[in-house]
Design goal:
The chain has 493 residues and is mainly α. It has 22 helices and 2 strands.
């Protein structure tokens, strides 16, 4: 380990800070819990900034590495590092944590310390997932991250929160048990090493690769979520509080997609190539079929939840075409989706806090009473539909461009998301925001205050900055993506 342990700080400051917030106790100390949570979130984000500013974009090697023996008897180590594929997700996660703390500042009035602590601890655990280079360390962080999100949905969620929380937990837990078996098999094949980087070099036979690919697929497909194991997501989103939906969409869905890049493609490259047609087909089903499902939703949260599944279908499509523009586009789409979907759920949360309903039919004419909010909501809706100039366009355009290189008809099918995305997003926006004032409750709405303006404004700047100048994002990942593709191509039987 050399220099400052930025990755350890990014992991443990939120976790230990969350425990400190938890120690503030009852709601009598809620102001202290809120202030302490914001301080921890800001410091947690601050320590991730050097990961970006000091990152060597010309290198595909793991950077900011940390290595300490953890359980020497089984050769399990505390091994951390990030490359161009993972570094941006650490920053995104820490950034979204600040947004979640701001969003819940006034809305959460009961068990405030516990609510804030759950998100801080979850933030640290997810940073651990994105930076772990030891298989067991990754698995521990991967499983532990379920617990705070399960509690957030189950305690602060809606009327069917217990059902949604249990469904979410069971789907993701059962999916990852097969991954554990695959990790143990790789440990034996690597001569007693849990190092993920060692696993990348294993000369595995095709039958073994196929079985391992399926084990990883089941674990990561549930997390993405891919069709047809996506059914837990709409329930979880609808019942989760606003902060839970934001983290679920912006970060948790990225864990499965990240798993494909860290495990499936580099460890079992031949099986990944062989299974690519199936993965592309499943991705196109998610893009097209789920887009049509989103069109018929009457609940705003469900509509955006299905929209997330469709957008994540674009991500897996980009992975399995095995060209640089498509893979980089998928990574850009993941970062953009973190901003845009998080902002969409925050906008829905702003309306829900005032009206206590998410049904589209209960609104209408919101622009007349909330013009500032309507302007922000329009920007995020356009980004969700892939409007040029917003971050939502960049990733989708790059994936479609990669698809054109791969197969014209795949590109043609994928491009339908630009039509479907515009259809369901603008249909929702039109009915909620435009037209005559829907009822007396809408007529009495108050526009966003300073706190809401702040977090929506920050996200709006991120969406526009990435849409107008994506170079810093693509430059960071370029060397690592090329190295991954070279590895997959060289390993092909």
């Amino acid at each position: 380990m050399t220099g400052m342990p930025f990755l350890s700080l990014a992991i443990w400051i939120p976790i230990l800070g969350g425990l400190l917030v938890l120690a503030t106790g009852s709601d009598r100390n809620a102001p202290l819990a809120r202030s302490l949570s914001m301080l921890v979130a800001l410091v947690g984000f601050a320590v991730t900034i050097p990961l970006f500013t000091q990152f060597d974009a010309s290198s595909s090697a793991m950077q900011f590495s940390e290595f300490l023996p953890w359980i020497p008897r089984f050769n399990i180590n505390y091994h951390l590092g990030v490359d161009g594929i993972s570094v941006l997700f650490v920053l995104l996660n820490a950034f979204i944590t600040i947004m979640v703390v701001m969003a819940g500042w006034q809305v959460i009035q009961e068990k405030v310390a516990q609510y804030m602590a759950a998100f801080l601890i979850m933030s640290g655990l997810m940073n651990g997932i994105f930076s772990a280079l030891d298989g067991i360390l990754f698995y521990v962080f991967f499983e532990a991250s379920l617990i705070p999100l399960y509690l957030v949905i189950g305690i602060w969620g809606g009327a069917n929160r217990v059902y949604a929380a249990i469904k979410f937990f069971l789907y993701t837990l059962l999916g990852s048990l097969l991954m554990l078996i695959a990790l143990l098999y790789l440990f034996m094949q690597a001569g007693g090493s849990f190092s993920i980087l060692d696993w990348h070099k294993l000369p595995l036979a095709m039958p073994a690769q196929t079985l391992i690919f399926w084990a990883f697929l089941i674990a990561f497909a549930v997390k993405v979520p891919m069709w047809p194991v996506h059914t837990w997501l709409p329930d979880a989103h609808v019942e989760a509080p606003t902060g839970g939906s934001v983290v679920l969409a912006a970060i948790a869905l990225k864990l499965g997609a990240y798993g494909f890049l860290r495990f499936s493609l580099p460890i079992v490259p031949d099986a990944s190539q062989a299974m690519a047609p199936m993965m592309i087909a499943l991705s196109l089903v998610a893009v097209i079929y789920i887009g049509f499902v989103a069109l018929v939703q009457t609940d705003m949260k469900k509509l955006v939840a299905y929209s997330s599944i469709s957008h994540m279908g674009f991500v897996t499509l980009g992975f399995f075409m095995f060209n640089a523009i498509g893979l980089e586009g998928a990574l850009v789409q993941m970062i953009s989706h973190g901003f845009v979907s998080g902002a969409m759920f925050l906008c829905i949360g702003v309306l829900y806090d005032r009206m206590h309903t998410r049904n589209i039919a209960d609104y209408g004419g919101v622009v007349k009473t909330m013009p500032k909010f309507a302007a922000f909501f329009m920007l995020f809706a356009m980004a969700n539909a892939g409007l040029p100039g917003t971050s939502g366009f960049i990733g989708e355009f790059m994936v479609v461009l990669g698809a054109v290189q791969f197969n014209f008809w795949v590109a043609f099918a994928a491009a339908t998301t630009l039509i479907l995305g515009a259809a369901y997003t603008l249909w929702m926006y039109k009915r909620v925001v435009f037209g005559v004032v829907g009822n007396s409750h809408v007529a009495e709405l108050e526009d966003i205050g300073a706190r809401e303006f702040a977090f929506l404004g920050i996200l709006a700047l991120c969406v526009l900055a990435m849409g107008l100048y994506p170079f810093p994002f693509t430059e960071v990942m370029h060397a690592s993506v090329n190295e991954l593709l070279r590895h997959v191509a060289v390993s092909k039987l």
